Amino acid sequence: MDKSTERLIVQSYTLAEAERVLAQTPSASDNWAPGYPFVDELAILPRFIADFRENGDPAPFGPYIVRRRSDGLAIGGLGFTGRPDADGAVEVGYGLIPDARGHGFATEALLAVIEIARGAGALIVRADTAVENVRSQNVLLKCGFREVEWSADAVFFKRVL
Question: How far apart are the first and last CA of the chain?
């Protein structure tokens, strides 16, 4: 399930695309911005690929590529770490290449996947950030999340849909 916003295309991964990104071997049509994929993007793909092969496509509760509409370049990723739990809660994570940060793209993309989650029946969206990642915490707050817990390393957020 893809979602277009004013400046972005939030595109659901296919299995083949995830395998290319993980191998870092783009096809001619993949259109990766310099710096994509980044380490965090690569870290989520083995689990997505294994889940896809074992249980089928987790869409809409899988990962997404974030592309700028202006040039079609992949500038980051975001998505869910799995299907809703028994309480209807899903967890989301996101990241952008350094050159794409500070332009409001993370907020725009996160709001898009929140709409996708709501439309697919999720009741709660959770996220966490490193304590020192104030910029990401601000993104979550702009998207209607509230802080629910702190640990020595992380701040945990929740948004009821």
Answer: 19
